[in-house]
Specification:
The complex is a heterodimer. Chain A is of the alpha+beta class. Helix content of chain A is 27%, strand content 37%. The model of chain A has no long low-confidence stretch (mean pLDDT 89). Chain B has 2 domains: 122 residues, Rossmann fold, CATH 3.40.50; 73 residues, no CATH class. Chain B has 8 helices and 5 strands, in the order βαβαβαββααααα. The chains are: A alpha+beta, B alpha/beta.
Chain lengths: 356, 216
């Protein structure tokens, strides 16, 4: 589990330290303070070995077309678009510090492999220096790993420095703020859980936290598409969850993503989107319980005061220690964080002190 | 009601609604109300948590002065020491004595313990000190003496005997309410009485508090 976070020079986060992180972390703060950038930094950290990790960040922001060059692909991830900066994303996980560094190398020479015989391959360096985005991963007590991303004519190529073994990073999934749930993706995740016999627990969570009438869930293929359907008490036929309203389908999607992301990290942008505030207490109760049950750590951004207010009403006593509210503030050029534990958030809400 | 945000550069934290009303009326009387915000922290329980939250609120950095106006209750020395310990643990500057300030790197912090003058007690005691010359006071003293004679005193750890009639456990509050009951227009709180001008804000017993606020 992540205990603390240090970020430097990533997007608007020139320097940020967050302490005392727990299972469910709600991130607040003014517009343009870097809430979504924090989620992106965590996504990048855990998806570091994916050659498309940077491209994915643009997709989250609905940027679908980019020029295939250093300036448009890489400069936006550096503070002030300055390619001379060194990006650092450092997480203390269970007391162990792991750090990802990203920097621009203006003088990288691509390795060229030559097959001399069926068993002998020689590697030499190309003569032309190119720009590379260098990734360095330092895990406490282990040898550092270095790899390079180079923009090719049509895609991004990755070259490792020496023979390195990429360990399995924790799975981190990013849920966008858009109201519309990706029903196909959810149906696939549901199917995977079903194969593993894990649907019963998920159904229990949804029934206990959101929809007490829920008898069961199943995927049904209609035409060429699969959809999750719900069987509800008192209704003869199964209902596609896509038809149960934006709020309900998003809530089910969140719980599905938690349960299919065991031991992972779930990053949710603007968690309140599409959800009526009266459902927030149940939502928080279900999310915190599911996060603990599946050991899935959650970082969710919000602009909504009701979201905070009803978290205080919804999270049960036994789960309160697993909840944090983290507000980001801009102070001069830096972003500073303030972590509120449950008791502190509850006090602020009771006293009607503005915490956003 | 909209949430309260830090909007001024001086923030007074006090223990309850009565204190807010009293301090609001008193600040108005000395012509300084505009410069302050007065917040109620609902008693001194969990004072450390409450101050930690205030330190984490938006705009806290814009505060110049944080004033803690609390009750001494039954032990002035231990209350002052515990407040100083809490301020220290939160990396806030802490004054050596009550009624004074300490300026730190980012903020100035002052502590005033009611009723002032290094005494044990609370807001109600300070209010009553301002009306010692009121004719009802002699009746009040006689009334309290009568209660003392006729009612049983209960120790904290002693179980309550339903057949016994006990002396008020908070003498200061009992006296203040008895005084308010004797007014032409009765009030049931010292704060509302303050807003209605029933305490003598020019009385010498308020000089310490006035000086404390003016030095902020």
């Amino acid at each position: 589990m992540i205990n603390s976070i240090n970020i430097a020079n990533f997007k608007g986060l020139s320097k940020l330290r967050i302490e005392d992180v727990s299972y469910v972390n709600l991130i607040g703060g003014m517009n343009n303070v870097g809430k979504t950038s924090l989620l992106e930094a965590l996504f990048l950290f855990y998806n570091r070995y994916n050659v498309n990790c940077i491209i994915s960040l643009y997709a989250f922001r609905a940027i679908t077309a980019l020029a295939n060059n250093v300036d448009s692909l890489w400069s936006p991830i550096f503070s002030n678009f300055d390619l001379n900066n060194l990006i650092e994303i450092s997480l203390a996980e269970n007391g162990k510090s792991n750090t990802l560094f990203l920097r621009i190398n203006k003088n990288y020479k691509i390795p060229v492999q030559q097959k001399i015989s069926p068993n002998i391959i020689t590697t030499s360096r190309g003569s032309r220096a190119v720009y590379s985005l260098d990734f360095t991963y330092k895990s406490f007590g282990e040898k550092e790993k270095i790899w390079h991303h180079v923009i090719d004519r049509n895609n991004i190529a990755s070259y490792t420095e020496g023979n390195i073994e990429f360990e399995q990073a924790r799975n981190a999934y990013f849920m966008l703020s858009s109201v519309k749930t990706n029903f196909q993706e959810d149906a696939i995740k549901f199917g995977k859980l079903d194969v593993l016999g894990k649907i019963g627990r998920l159904t229990g969570f949804i029934r206990d936290s959101i929809e007490p009438r829920l008898i069961g869930l199943s995927t049904i293929t209609l035409e060429s598409q699969s959809y999750i359907h719900a069987q509800l008490e008192g209704i003869d036929r199964k209902i596609p969850i896509a038809q149960m309203g934006d709020g309900m389908s998003r809530l089910i999607s969140i719980l599905l993503n938690i349960s299919s992301n065991e031991n992972g990290v779930l990053l949710i942008d603007e968690i309140e989107t599409g959800i009526h505030y009266t459902v927030f207490p149940k939502m928080w109760n279900g999310i915190v319980k599911a996060a603990k049950e599946y050991n899935c750590q959650i970082f969710a951004t919000t602009h909504s005061y009701e979201c905070l207010e009803y978290a205080v009403k919804g999270v049960e006593k036994e789960d309160q220690d697993s909840f944090r509210y983290i507000r980001l503030d801009r102070k001069n050029d830096k972003i500073v964080s303030h972590t509120f534990n449950f008791e502190e958030l509850e006090l602020s809400i009771q006293k009607k002190w503005e915490v956003r | 009601m909209a949430n309260e945000s830090i909007t001024k550069d001086k923030l007074i934290v006090c223990e309850g609604k009565d204190e807010i009303n009293f301090l609001t009326a008193f600040l108005k009387n000395i012509g300084s109300l505009d410069g302050y915000q007065v917040w109620d922290i609902s008693g001194v329980d969990s004072l450390k948590n409450k101050l930690k939250v205030i330190k984490s609120l938006p705009n806290y950095d814009k505060l110049n002065t944080l004033l803690l106006i609390l009750d001494s209750d039954d032990n002035f020395d231990s209350r002052l020491q515990s407040v100083k310990d809490i301020l220290k643990s939160l990396d806030l500057p802490y004054p050596d004595s009550a009624g004074s300030y300490k300026t730190g790197e980012n903020i100035k912090v002052g502590v005033f313990l009611m009723p002032g003058n290094l005494e044990n007690g609370m807001l109600e005691d300070l209010c009553l000190k301002t009306v010692t010359e009121h004719p009802a006071m002699s009746c009040l003293e006689a009334y309290m003496a009568c209660l003392e004679t006729n009612l049983a005193k209960k120790n904290l750890d002693e179980p309550k005997d339903p057949k016994k009639y006990y002396f008020p456990k908070n003498v200061s509050k009992a006296k203040a309410l008895a005084f308010l009951a004797a007014l032409h227009e009765p009030f049931n709180s010292v704060g509302i009485a303050a807003l209605n001008g029933y305490w003598d804000f020019d009385h010498a017993s308020l000089d310490d508090l006035k000086r404390f606020l003016q030095n902020s």
